[in-house]
Amino acid sequence: MRSGRGRTSASVLAIGMAGALGAAGLAGLAMAQGKPESLLPPGFDDPAPAPSPRQTQGARPAQAPTSQQGQPPAVQPGSAPGPGADVDPASLPPLPAISRDDLARLPSLEKLENMSTEELDQLLGLAPKSDIPAGAQRALTRVGVLAVDEGGLPPMALANQSDKLVRAALSGTQGPLVSRWGHILLRRALASRLAAPLGMDPVEFAALRVGLLNRMGEFALSRAVVQDIDTANWSPALTQEALGAYLASGDITGACPVVRLQGSQREDGQWVVWQAICNAYAGESALAATQLDRALFRGAAPRVDVLLARRMAGSAGRAQRGVNIEWQGVDDLNPWRFGLANAVGEPLPEGLLDAALKARGGAYYARSGALLPMLPAAQRASFAGRAAREGILSADAMVDLYSEVHADSSAGGDAKAHAAALREAYLAADAAARIAAMQRLWADGAKLGGGDGYGAQVLTAYAAARIPASTDHAAAAGDLIAAMLAAGLDRNAGKWANVVEEGSLGWALIALSAPNATAVGQSPVESFMGSDDSEGQRKSAFLVAGLAGTGRLSEGDAGALAGDLGFDLARKTRWTAAIARAAEVGNPALVAMLAGLGMQGNSWSQMTPLHLYHITAALTRVGLVAEARMIAAEAVARG
């Protein structure tokens, strides 16, 4: 038994429910009750205080109200009749009728016994509409975590835009982006403090943004955005996306405010189990244990999921129960098992995670695991390469992570070897040895996160910037410059301008990324095309599109070179018209969202030079020139 309303007997609660439905009638009955009489003998009552001299001066005797002989004194409205007075039942207000539908909506005795305090409050109409005091509640006029002075986009950028276009851009971006810098740009737009588009509910706008952040693997940022909205204002869609963000970031109890506030609005298995965990952390451990036992008995959730929840709930309070997690017969991994197992420190069976990473949707576990603080650094390092090449992790974060691996005496395997190579890339005696260490990491890029190994270049960005620009290292200049630009170190890369040969990869990257725009002629581009061995001369096509989009190649030269490479920069589509129009009206937020829509894919082979041209041109026109330069250079480096 627990104290409080949560364990009030079922019969009393049932009577209380009927009483709640007839509150007005009960108030009338209370008025009709007689005034309580004293049970003490005469003289034992508290004596009335003696009147003060000032009160007695000028006091007039009170006159009793007159009444006709044989009739009781009239009762004043709002006062209780005196003892023994007759009350006419017809004068009492009628009790409200209780229909069969009202009675049918009453929960069963079993449900009443197992309701939490918050659920009982909601049932009886006692729960507050918000868990935040009125003076601290936040407006929905602008939602986000990145202000303009912190790098955010203008807050009113979408205020006069059509909700249909914004909704289509956000909901239509389903997959990852091929570009690391495109990911960073879109993340910046989604995290900015923005007003909702014209005609769109602010909560719906937030739910669309949070959903896209989750699909991009930005779970920590997604959680921060939902926390900018009072939980009382959350819609079902926003609640669902928020739960995904909390689960992927390992913050199971962080969702408890909304889970307990919304109570029994949902009845699916995951919600029921989450409710039990939150009840345990709210001090209602007995109720939590009952809910989990019932969920296991009724099959509301798989057995292993309920056992993991028992372990989580058991860590709250004193009444802890040892729970043995049974993985026998579990052949697949899901986000709930992954998040909850990591939260309680339960190791996953060997092979289960590997199979999940290889399956469709396996990128979710790498994106989540790269940022989970409870995992060992060596394990996070196995996920970090993907997170780095996609734009989730910065070069600084990668160096910090591998520094942890190097300092961990228990770490081993590839992570330890990569940490040692990174240390050598920074501290080797001469530049040639440092370059050799970086080249080993680049060659081993598949183990650093798969894909095209771009995560290894992100890891070595600052080490590459420490190499002095010299003709002695001209052979490695292209890879060194690509690594620097992975972290946006365009000025360090520009120091190699007098070292690289015209028409080389290093020259192309500097021509695209240099802060000070300089016109490029047709001849050096043709020289680059002549030595381009990429599939279908994709790098050359991206070079022409990037130079044309950033205004560094004349329209005539761009058209001629594009024709030689087999694509037409003048071709129009609905998407090109939309992003061009957004740039024409000077809307950076809408341009960023449409750019993300056009950069979906798993590799740069899914990107077209036409899309790259319109993206870089639109970004340049709305003032996002640095982002346009980095995206164009990345396209050539990874094409």
Strand content: under 5%
Give the distance, in angstroms, between the N- and C-terminal Cα atoms.
67 Å
Radius of gyration: 35 Å
Helicity range of the residues?
Answer: 40-55%
How many domains comprise the coordinates?
3
| Structural class by helix and strand composition | mainly alpha
Number of helices: 34
Question: Can you tell me the residue ranges where pLDDT is under 50 for at least 5 consecutive residues?
Answer: 1-35, 54-70
Largest sheet: none
Work out the number of β strands: 0
Please tell me what the overall shape is: globular
Mean pLDDT: 85
Describe the structure.
- The chain has helices at 10-21, 23-32, 53-56, 100-105, 109-113, 117-123, 163-172, 180-191, 202-216, 219-226, 236-248, 256-262, 269-281, 285-298, 303-314, 335-344, 352-358, 363-369, 377-390, 395-407, 413-427, 431-443, 454-459, 461-465, 477-486, 490-494, 505-513, 522-530, 538-549, 555-565, 574-584, 588-598, 609-621, 625-638.
- It has 639 residues and is an all-alpha fold.
- The chain folds into 3 domains: 162-369, no CATH class; 383-500, no CATH class; 503-639, no CATH class.
- The radius of gyration is 35 Å and the shape is globular.
- Residues 1-35 and 54-70 have low confidence and may be disordered.
